[in-house]
Write a structure and sequence with these properties.
GO terms for molecular function: DNA-binding transcription factor activity; transcription cis-regulatory region binding. InterPro entries: LysR_HTH_N, LysR_subst-bd, WH-like_DNA-bd_sf, WH_DNA-bd_sf. This is LysR family transcriptional regulator. The longest helix is centred in the N-terminal third of the chain and has 28 residues. The radius of gyration is 22 Å and the shape is globular. It folds into two domains: 71 residues, Winged helix-like DNA-binding domain superfamily/Winged helix DNA-binding domain (Arc Repressor Mutant, subunit A, Orthogonal Bundle), CATH 1.10.10; 168 residues, 3-Layer(aba) Sandwich (D-Maltodextrin-Binding Protein, domain 2). By secondary structure, the chain is an alpha/beta fold.
Length: 280
């Protein structure tokens, strides 16, 4: 399967239009149509309906594979290029809950810090847009994070921290010594996908519920804590990232906030020094 044809297919689906895909890719519209026809001929099935432009059932299945395949191709190209490259900058991608004082102190020599969720941070390293990633999320103690496959990358655990439920003053549960997540399944939660995604929390806890309340689309955990402290819903954060509100330890299920360092093969230099500082 020609990766150029696959990339064109993904772009058409994303843009919802052959002409918009042509503009984005720098092709003519007939060229895009020819590439889609060639891919359909190669696979022997129609992949798109034309009016409107939507993936067929076979196209939806191909789309599930396309993202990881294209990422692996970018990762392979980047990995080979790294062997000859002489990096002048050092970029780290990190989740918004990662940067404790100790972690920030270990980033000596870093020229750029990009805030990104775990999957996005992995993709940035795989594509060469970042040299290191500090991926994070909820996990059972000592269990690795469920990170997407992104090529031959090294993953090392950095730290784990207990989680607390952040509530408003006067909340009926504010006086508890500890809280169980299943007792909070019907409560409203601050929906902060860039801070503590509720879907990942449900998956790790194997729990339904956790009704989304107010939605916060930023990266600052302090804002999520302030929304919880103001009564807009509960939130779950590492204790070090919850500057306000009533903080009650989560006692069941046993879930921690885990941080993992992700990187490709590194030559001696600033990136290797940061790795040593973070993992020592």
């Amino acid at each position: 399967m020609d990766p150029h044809l696959l990339r064109t297919f993904v772009t058409v689906v994303t843009e919802g239009s052959f002409s918009a895909a042509a503009d984005r890719l720098g092709y003519t519209q007939p060229a895009v149509s020819q590439q889609i026809a060639a891919l359909e001929a190669d696979l022997g099935v129609p992949l798109l309906t034309r009016r409107p432009v939507r993936p067929t059932r076979a196209g939806e299945r191909l789309l599930e594979h396309a993202g990881p395949l294209l990422l692996r191709l970018r990762a392979a190209r980047t990995d080979v290029a790294r062997l000859a490259a002489r990096p002048r900058t050092l970029t780290v991608a990190a989740g918004p809950l990662v940067l404790t004082a100790g972690t920030a102190a270990a980033l000596a020599g870093v020229t750029t810090l990009r805030i990104a969720g775990a999957a996005a941070a992995m993709a940035l390293v795989a594509s060469g847009e970042a040299d290191l990633a500090l991926a994070d999320g909820p996990a059972a103690p000592s269990d690795p994070l469920n990170l997407p496959e992104a090529g031959p990358l090294t993953t090392v655990g950095v730290r784990e921290e207990e989680l607390v439920v952040v509530l408003a003053e006067g909340h009926p549960l504010a006086g508890r010594a500890g809280l169980r997540l299943d007792d909070l399944a019907d409560a409203l939660w601050v929906d902060a996908p860039e801070v503590m995604p509720l879907d990942r929390l449900r998956a790790v806890a194997r729990l339904d519920g956790l009704r989304p309340g107010i939605r916060y689309e930023g990266h600052d955990p302090a804002v999520a804590a302030r929304l919880a402290a103001a009564g807009h819903g509960l939130t779950l954060l590492p204790a070090s990232a919850a500057p306000c509100g009533v903080r009650v330890p989560l006692v069941a299920p046993r879930i921690v906030h885990r941080v993992e360092l992700v990187h490709a093969a590194l030559p001696p230099g600033p990136a290797a020094e940061v790795v040593r500082a973070l993992t020592s």
